Amino acid sequence: MNASVSPAINNISKVVEKLRRLSQVEVQSGWRYGDSDSAVSSLSICNWPVAELNGKGHIAWPSGKQVVCLGQQLIIPDN
User: In this structure, are residues 45 and 32 in contact, taking their beta carbons and an 8 Å threshold?
Assistant: First the structure.
């Protein structure tokens, strides 16, 4: 068996990696938040503040029985 990678396999790997970069988007930092009252009164999340991420990349809020509404707007192209 030949240890070198054939040009066709190498080309396929490059195309797959390019498609992966185009189709996978980091969305954790795009979450917006509102309290339960503002979420009910506003259908558009564009005016909500962006949720801050902690050191682990998680959205954290104060402990207790609080309701926090989270939302994201994703734009999916037609083509």
Answer: yes
